[in-house]
Amino acid sequence: MRILRGLSGVRAYVRSAPGTYVWLVVLFVTTVALHHMPPEFEEHFLRRRSTNLHELSRNPVRALVASAMWIESGHWVPYAVLYTVFHAPAERWLGTARWLSVCALAHVLASLVSEGVLLEAIRRGVAPHTAVFTLDIGVSYALAGVIAVLGYGIAVPWRYAYLAAVLVVFGLPLAMGPSFTDFGHFLAVLIGLACYPLVRGRGKAWNPKETLAGLRG
Predict the structure, then answer these.
(1) 49 contacts 70 by C-beta, under 8 angstroms
(2) Which CB contacts under 8 angstroms, 24+ apart, belong to 36-43?
(3) Contact 22, 91 (CB under 8 A)
């Protein structure tokens, strides 16, 4: 009976965040497909679905949508954990439409701005011209934006500690050895924080202190 109750709880949790888990299913299917591709073909295939300058100049909508359906590393399980820890709570709290809006804004804006910065670097001779074909796919910009906006769902003063940790995690790589991807991740965090208007009226913020008191009592 405990197993059945546990399975029922998992099923209810998954159903409460449909967008998150449909997205994860898509990523699982595409990841399995990648593992069945020859290595030499895989890179070419992913470049065609990348948000690099070449693909954005040809078909920006296709590039932005397709890039969110693949994982470059080919490792699905870590993303399943991250989606459950961050995306699912955010979707349950914000509702699917608002959650998806945060994902889209972070993914699209961070991709376009970071690639715009790269284009300017190429024009100035700071980056090689071959960078227009850089492999840039994945779901990390959307994830970074959601991680940031989720901070508004935590009660003060815990919120400040959470957001400080987020800024350190995403800001440190940018400060130590910046890349255009690091810049995109940090920008996605700022976009997530700018989505504050979407969180208004979403109910009482989660208070870790109250949760711990409930577990003890």
Answers:
(1) yes
(2) 43/135
(3) no
Q: Which residues pair with 124 in a beta bridge?
A: none
Instruction: Write out the two tokens for 216.
Output: 């003890």
Read off the pTM. 0.91
Residue 181 has which token pair?
A: 């991807």
For residues 85 and 79, give the distance between their C-alpha atoms in angstroms, rounded to a whole number. Answer: 10
pLDDT band per the 50, 70, 90 thresholds, residue 43: confident
Residue 5: its pLDDT value, please? 60
Beta bridge partners of 206: 154
3-state SS record for the chain = CHHHHHHHHHHHHHHCCHHHHHHHHHHHHHHHHHHCCCHHHHHHHHHCCCCCHHHHHHCHHHHHHHHCCCCCCCCCHHHHHHHHHHHHHHHHHHCHHHHHHHHHHHHHHHHHHHHHHHHHHHHCCCCCHHHHHCCCCCCHHHHHHHHHHHHHHECCCHHHHHHHHHHHHHHHHHHHCCCHHHHHHHHHHHHHHCCHHHHCCCCCCECHHHHHHHHHC
Amino acid in position 96: T
% of the chain surpassing 70 pLDDT: 94
Give the integer Cα–Cα distance in Å for 146 and 192.
Answer: 6
Amino acid in position 78:
P
Res 160 pLDDT > 80: yes
